[in-house]
Design brief:
Blueprint (H helix, E strand, L loop, with lengths): L19 E5 L6 E6 L3 H20 L2 H17 L1 H12 L3 H21 L6 E3 L7 E8 L2 E5 L7 H13 L2 E5 L5 H14 L6 E3 L5 H10 L3 E7 L2 H12 L4 E5 L4 E5 L5 H13 L9 E7 L3 H12 L20 H16 L3 E2 L14 E6 L4 H4 L6 E7 L2 H8 L7 E5 L3 H10 L4 E4 L18 E2 L12 E8 L3
Parallel strand pairs: 5-6, 5-8, 6-7, 8-9, 10-11, 10-15, 11-14, 13-14, 15-16
Antiparallel strand pairs: 1-2, 3-4, 4-18, 9-17, 12-13
Bound molecules: NADP nicotinamide-adenine-dinucleotide phosphate (NAP).
NADP nicotinamide-adenine-dinucleotide phosphate binds next to helix 7 and helix 8.
Length: 475
C-alpha cells in the first residue's frame, strides 16, 4: 500500500490480530490490507453516538454544514489520485475510470453543499381567514446506508452528502469487497471538520447482521440501500415492521435500442461506453441490445470491431479499458450465461479470447432471441447480446418485458419516434442518442423492481427530510 502518498487515508487499516476483514486485489489476488470489524454492541453504540451527534449537527446553520461539505469536496479532489489508486487496487476498474468515479463521487458533495441551503418550505393559502399554513422541512434524524462494491466511493457520497446537508447524521456499511475506499473517503470528511460521529463507516461480522440493526434500531429513521433487488426486498421486508423509511436503488436490465434511422456510428460509441464501463458491472449498463433488422448486420460488424479493440488487464496498467470482474462467483455466472445462450443458438460475433483469473474477455453475441435467459438476467459483465426487431410496437413490448425499470437507451433521428419511445419506455431514466447518463444534477433512480426514490438533483435531499405542516389558528 506504500504507493498511496497520503498515508492518513489508510489510518483505519488494522493488523491481522484484531477482528478484521481481509481485502484482496481482484486483478492479482494479492492481500491489500484489513478493515476493522465491529461487534453487534459496538454497532449499536455507533448508532447511539450518531443520534447524539445529530442533535448538534442539525442545529448548525445550513450554511455552516455547507462550508464543511465544501471542504470535504475539495479534499476529495486534492486526493483524487490516491483515492483512485486505492479503488483500482480493491475494485479492479481501470485507473482512468477510478479517477472519473472520484470526481463523480465528489460532485455529489459539491452539489448537496449547495442544495442544503435551499431546503425551502412553503406558504399555502389557508381555506379560512383566521388561519395561516406553512410547511418546513426537517432532517429525518439518523440515516443509515448499505452500499455495493461496483462504485465504492460514489454510492456512498451520493447518500452521505444529501443526508449531511439536510442535517442528518449518517452511518454506512460498505460492501465487504471494497471497504478501504469507504474508510478513506470518511477520513477526508473528518479532515474537513465533519465530526466523526456525524459520519461513520461500520463493518459487522456479516452484512445481514448490520442490515438487521439498521432496519430495527429505533434511533435509525431511514435506510438508503444500493444493491441487488434480492437484498433490497429483504431489507424492505425487515423495514416494514417499524415502518422505517427507505430508499432503494436496485438492479437493472437496461435495453439499448438502435432504430433504422439511427446514426449507427454514434450508436456504436454509445454502446461501448454504456456496456463496457466497469467491465459491465454497473446497474445502468446496457444489458441487452435491440437493433432494427435492416441495420442489424451493419451494427454487429461495427460494434464487434470496436469491442475487439478493448484491452483487458490490470486496471493499474496504461491502456487497459476492461479490468477484472469482482469475484470468481461473478466470473462463473457470466460465463455460464454465455454458454447457455450459445447452447440456445446465439453465436459469438467477436474473436474469442480466454483470460485467466478474474478477467473476462468482452463478447458480442448475435442471433440472440428475446426469450433467452441472458436477456432476462442482469449479466453484470462485459457481454453484449444483440437481438433483431422489426416494428416499434414489438420493440416496446420486448423492452418493457422485465421486472426492472432503471435505465434505458435508444438511438433515433426521428423526433416523433424519439418522443413516443421515450414516453413508452417504463424506466426511471432514458438516454436518447446518449450512452452515459449519470450526473449529480439529474434525478437517478428506477421504477418497478429497480427501486424507490431518487438520488442526486434537487430531489435527492428530500429523501433525508420530513415535511412538517404548521397550522396557525385563531388569527
Ligand atoms: P448485493 O449483494 O445486494 O450487495 C449490496 C450490499 O448489500 C453490500 O454491502 C452487501 O454486503 C449488502 N448485503 C448483502 N446481503 C445483505 C443482507 N442480507 N442484509 C443487509 N445487507 C446485505 O449487491 P452487489 O452484488 O454487491 O451489487 C450489485 C447489485 O447492485 C446489482 O444488482 C446492481 O444493479 C445494483 N446496483 C444498483 C445501483 C442503483 O443505483 N440502482 C447502483 C449500483 C449497483 P456484503 O458486501 O458485505 O455482502
Amino acid at each position: 500500500m506504500h504507493q498511496i502518498t497520503n498515508s492518513d487515508l489508510l489510518t483505519f487499516m488494522v493488523s491481522k490480530q484484531e477482528p478484521a476483514l481481509a481485502v484482496n486485489n481482484p486483478a492479482t489476488g494479492e492481500l491489500l490490507g484489513y478493515a476493522p470489524i465491529l461487534q453487534h454492541q459496538q454497532i449499536e453504540a455507533a448508532v447511539e453516538r450518531a443520534h447524539q451527534a445529530q442533535q448538534a449537527w442539525a442545529k448548525l446553520p445550513a450554511k455552516s454544514r455547507s462550508q464543511l461539505l465544501n471542504k470535504w469536496y475539495h479534499l476529495l479532489l486534492d486526493n483524487q489520485d490516491d483515492l483512485a489508486r486505492l479503488m483500482t487496487l480493491e475494485q479492479g476498474k481501470p485507473l482512468a475510470e477510478a479517477k472519473g468515479e472520484v470526481l463523480y463521487g465528489a460532485s455529489f458533495v459539491e452539489w448537496f453543499a449547495e442544495e442544503g441551503k435551499r431546503t425551502y418550505g412553503e406558504s399555502i393559502p389557508a381555506p379560512s381567514g383566521d388561519k395561516r399554513i406553512v410547511t418546513i422541512k426537517q432532517p429525518v434524524g439518523v440515516a443509515s446506508a448499505i452500499t455495493p462494491w461496483n462504485f465504492p466511493i460514489a454510492m456512498i457520497t451520493r447518500k452521505a452528502a444529501p443526508a449531511l446537508a439536510a442535517g442528518c447524521s449518517f452511518i454506512v456499511k460498505p460492501a465487504e469487497l471494497t471497504p478501504l475506499s469507504a474508510f478513506a473517503v470518511a477520513e477526508l470528511a473528518y479532515q474537513a471538520g465533519i465530526p466523526r460521529d456525524v459520519l461513520q463507516v461500520v463493518l459487522g461480522e456479516d452484512a445481514a447482521q448490520v442490515g438487521a440493526i439498521f432496519t430495527s434500531h429505533p434511533l435509525i429513521r431511514k435506510l438508503s440501500f444500493t444493491g441487488s433487488t434480492r437484498v433490497g426486498r429483504i431489507l424492505m421486508e425487515q423495514s416494514a415492521h417499524d415502518i422505517k423509511r427507505t430508499s432503494m436503488e436496485l438492479g437493472g436490465n437496461a435495453p439499448f435500442i438502435v432504430f433504422d434511422d439511427a446514426d449507427i456510428d454514434a450508436a456504436v460509441q454509445g454502446a461501448i461506453a454504456s456496456k463496457f464501463r466497469n467491465a459491465g458491472q454497473t446497474c445502468v449498463c446496457a444489458n441487452r441490445f435491440y437493433v432494427h433488422s435492416s441495420v442489424y448486420d451493419e451494427f454487429i460488424e461495427k460494434f464487434a470491431a470496436q469491442v475487439e479493440q478493448l484491452n483487458v488487464g490490470n486496471g493499474l496498467e496504461e491502456g487497459v479499458n476492461v479490468g477484472p470482474v469482482i469475484s470468481q462467483t461473478a466470473r462463473d455466472n457470466i460465463l455460464a450465461l454465455v454458454e447457455r445462450a450459445l447452447e440456445q443458438g446465439a453465436e459469438v460475433a467477436t474473436k474469442r479470447i480466454e483470460h485467466d483469473g478474474l478477467f473476462v474477455a468482452p463478447v458480442v453475441l448475435k442471433n440472440v432471441c428475446h426469450d433467452m435467459e441472458i436477456v432476462s438476467q442482469e449479466i453484470f459483465g462485459p457481454v453484449a447480446p444483440v437481438i433483431a426487431f422489426d416494428s416499434d410496437e414489438q420493440l416496446i413490448e420486448m423492452a418493457n418485458d422485465t421486472i426492472y425499470g432503471l435505465a434505458s437507451y435508444f438511438y433515433s433521428q426521428n423526433i416523433a419516434r424519439v418522443w413516443n419511445v421515450a414516453e413508452a419506455l417504463e424506466y426511471g431514466m432514458v438516454g436518447i442518442n446518449e450512452g452515459i447518463i449519470s450526473t449529480e444534477v439529474a434525478p437517478f433512480g428506477g421504477v418497478k423492481q429497480s427501486g424507490i426514490g431518487r438520488e442526486g438533483a434537487k430531489q435527492g435531499i428530500d429523501e433525508y427530510m420530513n415535511i412538517k405542516y404548521l397550522c396557525f389558528g385563531g388569527l
